[in-house]
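QA checklist item 7 of 12: single-chain prediction sanity check.
[x] sequence parsed
[x] length recorded as 504
[x] structure emitted
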Amino acid sequence: MDMDAIIEALGGAAQVQTLLGVGPSAVSNYRARGQFPEYARIRIWQALKARGITVDPETLSVEPSGQANPIASSNSTVSPSISPATGLATVSIPQSPRILLIISGGIAAYKSLELIRRIKDKGWHIRCIMTASAEQFITPLSVSALSGETTYTELFSLTDEAEMGHIRLAREADAIVIAPATANIMAKMAYGFADDLATTVLLATDAPTLIAPAMNPFMWAHPATQANQRQLKIRGVSFVGPDSGDMACGEDGAGRLAEIPQIINAISRILPGNGRLNGKTALVTSGPTHEPIDRVRYIANRSSGKQGHAIAAALARQGAKVTLISGPVDIPPPAGVHVVAVETAQDMLTASLAAMPVDIAICAAAVGDFSVVNSGVNSGANSGANSAAHKIKKSDTGDAPQLFLQQNPDILATIADHKMRPRLVIGFAAETDDVVNYAIAKRLRKKADWILANDVGQDEQPVFGSDFNMVHLVTENGVEPWSEMSKHDLADQLVSRIAKEISA
């Protein structure tokens, strides 16, 4: 294992420190031992994969030239080649995409047999997993007869684990499709359950994932199911359907499995290399920043990161290679993107510039405008920071300490005026009054191409932390009001406009 080549491929020791949340001495220790700790390997593997570099996820060992890729399917046409710059193996997408179909329980399970036939007609390779409830409607034998492959059902099958294994099932898929998807499996995905083979594979993959729901209309409309759908969309999961119509239960409404041609088209859209932004690179900033006052307290804002993360996920679904620079948030990172965790505005600027050059930059983070110069109480300071080195104590007299603030660097303006300026630079303007006029002025002042302005001053409809947003898109051509929609729908609409602009 060539550790120096891996560190170089990740952008240097500083980027590795940020990725793993460690200091310089830790990276030095890794070099001395000749290996990364076990907890860090999956992060390293994901970050390398986001850059188109393939190593063994268990050992991070580089695949020698000409040797078969142990991660790739024996039926795959993947051909590893060694990058001259890094000495690491890169992998091209196979000519025949590999689909992993997960069939969950429901009367619509019988339609999965037709779906398998149509997938085979496309010339795609398919493997199937069935849940225990799915076996109540169709048999593994029927599925195997149509797919031409073993149908997997048990997580703890020693034979399957020896020959295949759930990790290999997860790693070898170019796309994962759950059709039909019940309310139960959607809930398990949203909360990270892994109590059977299907959910374990779903938790172990970073492949593009498509859900085709099928359930009773009241189950689909239930707030819990709708919340789970929103959560999964934020993580980058795609949906097709459900359609409306008569149900097997005798009721009518939204809940029917999407038609098979619709599902096939949706699979085509999520396959690597098929997105409208395939071959493009993107940088997204998201979440708040925390500006320390002392070792305990900090200045922050109410941003949840939901909008920025949804945009990163939507870009990845369209084939872009995405670097997400995220401040401290409580939501999971979307699949298929390279995430760099930061804390302060200066950290975010440094990470953003390190990710350039890119084709698209979207500054969705609510960056703190000010940071503490000094506390006015404690003269000691952290290394490289202006905050107090120790917790500031309350005074017996009741006097509050003085905080002296300085303006933080402007990330959007810096990127827009950079010598490696992206082709499209987009910012957000969170305003409490005169929203559109402030956004128009901000676009000109910061030399951005587009600004999305949203009103965050409404108590009855808060934006920070909400799943919904309503914006005005400000461009050189004018102001375009967008209706209120979920943040993931807004992300899809924005990325659609970006793809149109980039292609033009």
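[x] summary fact logged: The longest helix spans residues 487-503.
[ ] second reviewer sign-off
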